[in-house]
Structures are given as C-alpha cells and as structure tokens.
Amino acid sequence: MRFCVIVGTRPQIIKSQPIIKELLSRRSNLTMIHTGQHYDYQMSKIFFEEMKIRDPDLNLEVDPGTAAQQLASIIQKLEKPLQKISPDIVIIPGDTRSALGAALCANRLGIKVAHVEAGARSMEFEMEEEINRRIIDHISSLLFAPTQNCYKNLKKESVFGSVFLTGDTMYDVFLQFKKNLKPNKSSGKYVLMTLHRNDNIKNYQKIKKILNLAKQISAKGWDVIFPIHPHTKKQIRTFGLGLNGITATNPIKYSDTLRLLRGASLLLTDSGGLQKEAYWLNTPCVTLRKSTEWIETLDGKHNFLHSNISDSSVNFVTKILKQKRLSTKPTTKFGNGEAAKKIASILLQ
Fold this sequence. Notes:
This protein is about 45% helix and about 15% strand. The strands form two sheets. It has a seven-stranded parallel beta sheet with strand order 3-2-1-4-5-6-7, with helices on both faces. Strands 10-9-8-11-12-13 form a six-stranded parallel beta sheet, with helices on both faces. The protein has two domains: about 1-170 and about 335-349, Rossmann fold (3-Layer(aba) Sandwich); about 190-320, Rossmann fold (3-Layer(aba) Sandwich), CATH 3.40.50. The chain is α/β, with parallel strands linked by helices. The radius of gyration is 20 Å and the shape is globular.
C-alpha cells in the first residue's frame, strides 16, 4: 500500500511523528508532503530535525495571503503531486488550514482520507479549526479518535467513515520526550504563555487585555515567558503594543517547551495541544478561550477556561498561582502511548 502524510504546521509534524516512524519501521511506502503553511524555520524545519523525521519529499511553498487564498493555494498545488503519487490513503493530522485543503483535494481525487485526531469539538462556530475538523471528519474514510469523548462525538454525528478509538499520538510523543527532559535551569517562579488563535490576536482589545494581564502577573512577582508565534508577533507590531515586563522569546523546540512547562507555576494559553501537555505534566493551566475541545483536562482543577479578560482577571490568575501545586497525577484519558501502533495496524489492514 502507498501512504501519503500531509502536514503544514508544527502541531501536525508532532502528531505525525510516531505514525511516520511506525509505518517506516514496517517498511511501508510512505511519501511526506509539507504545504509550507508554516514557512518560518523555527516553526517548521526545526521540528523535523528534533522529531528525527526525514525532510519532506515535497514542499508546496503555498502562498501566505488571506485564509481563503492560502486554502485555495494548498488545494491547487497539491492536486498534481497527489495524482502523480497516487496513494491508497492520505493521512491527515489535526485541524489546520493545511489539513482541510489536503482533505478536500484528496476527496475530490477519489483518494481515501485517514484523519488523525478526529472528533475533537469545541462547539465554537467562529473558530476556523472547529469548522476545519468537522468538514474533514465528514469526508474521511478512516477516523482515529484520540479520546472516548471524541469517539462519542463522531458517533453522534453519524460520520460516513469507520471510527476507531486509538488514543492520542501526541501522548505517544510526549512520553518519548518526557523520559529525556533535561533539568530546568530557569530560576524563580514563572508563567509560560502562548498565544496564536485569530480570535485573540486579530482583535485589538482582546490582545491588549491579554498582554496587560501578563504584565500585571509579572508585576506581582512571576516572570512571564512568552515564545511568540510569528503571526502573533506581526499583530503585536501592527497594533503598536509593547511587551514591557514580559520575557519574549522566539518559538522554541518541543523539548524546551516541555521543560519550561514542567517547571512553570502556570500555563496561560489559547493552544489546544499545550492544554493536554500541561495536564500530563500536572501544571495548572488557564485557557484563554470560552471552551475547549479537550474537556478531559477540566477535571480536578487542572485547566480553567477564561475568555473574558477584565480588571478581576489578575486576581483570578493569582489565586490559582498561590494554590498548592497539584499533588495528584491526572488519570490519562488519552491512551497508553501506543496510539501510533494501533493506527499503523489499521492502515495496513
């Protein structure tokens, strides 16, 4: 059988890593395509190197443009390569613009789609990723659900494809890297912050309030470490906002993210993946959204949703920071670290 894995962003590279390794270990015919959605080295190539994945066989170098222009570019530039490769199955991880473009293109060419991380739902209609993953799920032949809740969502929606409860490939990767985490050299107490959702960064008032909250946290004695996504950096510059009091850095490697997250007093984020990693590392998390697709992380005061930033937000966050660090390890609901093995076995059947 011929497989083709299509990625375009950092999270997709991470999610795909154990599947790529597993399929190659079974001597499968595998082609890797990168759309170029994350064209910045620190957001893309560095993760291929760290994950020890070979360079993609093809980079589409899609046009940045608007959301619609980029989606159209992905579909157009992918059509001929997919026709030439003629894979039996296209493997698509996650819910990015690259994932949607790849799924639509494969579907129109009559190629089966296998969706990794199927069934995640935030119920936020205005979120691009929510619409992406719903469309992908309904045109996929094979759907790999990472959690029981994701599996239930797919069954409730009566998707056409075959649904499998496999566990989360990100948990596979997490367990690989957790074993080799180096000691955290950062001294003192700190908060790790990430920010990239359009709903937060494209809205002047929202991003201003979030940055002001970070500055207030810093003023109360917690260093705020902020690896900045290129799009977020661009928006901050466009709005003319300052980062005084915040320790801003370039995007960092996956292992460094886990190291910082393990030692952090708190994670302040709008990311989906980092909510899970904070949960697995027992680090408290405040998610700057009104909902989460990973409802499992809300158990046991591990993750708190907080979308409406106000004058009282700093007290809300400080209260969590002052709480005794969670002593009980969260019970994982994301599988046993062998999701990729299950997925590879199903694909090869």
